[in-house]
Amino acid sequence: MGSNAMTIELQVPSTAGYERVAMDAAASVARLVGFRQSRIEDLKTAVAEACINAMEHAHRFNETMKVVVALTVQDSALRIDVVDQGSGVRNYPTDPDISRKFSGEHAARGWGMFLIKALMDEVEFNVRSELGNVTRMIIRMEPPGK
């Protein structure tokens, strides 16, 4: 993202339900810059999942710990950095074994990272910042190949 980027940043407590604030903010920004509704729905799901992961795994739902969500708009893309205050690099789960989940052999949990990777155009986990761990997601107005 280059020099003409614009960033909006918000902080939410690690309390279940507050992921919706980040989700709504991301949707509002995407709408303002002209994203189609179908892309906005993908964005909302991915932002909510990334926030819930930070709240649960890095912060253990400690409401005094904040999740920072930075939304950076440039050209026809939106970069979303979801930053937690966890210390050290977290081990993100690998993709779920879908057939084993459907058959009930694996717990229904663990879909978050899989969903994020499926819905976003680019995803990086474990990007480090001065604050903690970052899940970085990029979504373009038009999916690649369209």
Structural class: alpha+beta
Q: Identify the strand order in the major beta sheet.
A: 1-2-3-5-4
What is the ordering of alpha helices and beta strands? EHHEEHHEE
CATH superfamily: Histidine kinase-like ATPase, C-terminal domain
User: What is the CA–CA distance across the termini?
Assistant: 21 Å
- The CATH architecture comes to 2-Layer Sandwich
CATH class: Alpha Beta
Domain module tally: 1
Number of strands: 5
Which fold does the CATH topology refer to? Heat Shock Protein 90
Largest sheet: 5 strands, antiparallel
Please outline the helices and strands:
Elements: E1 6-13, H1 19-32, H2 37-58, E2 66-74, E3 77-83, H3 98-102, H4 112-119, E4 122-128, E5 133-140
Antiparallel strand pairs: 1-2, 2-3, 3-5, 4-5
Question: Overview of this structure, please?
Answer:
Helix 2 (37-58) packs antiparallel against helix 4 (112-119). It is globular, with a radius of gyration of 15 Å. The protein has a single domain (6-140), classed as Histidine kinase-like ATPase, C-terminal domain (Heat Shock Protein 90), CATH 3.30.565. A hairpin with a 2-residue loop joins strand 2 and strand 3. The chain has 4 helices and 5 strands; from the N terminus they run E-H-H-E-E-H-H-E-E. By secondary structure, it is α+β, with helices and mostly antiparallel strands. The chain has a 5-stranded antiparallel sheet with strand order 1-2-3-5-4, with helices on one face. The chain has helices at residues 19-32, 37-58, 98-102, 112-119, and strands at 6-13, 66-74, 77-83, 122-128, 133-140.
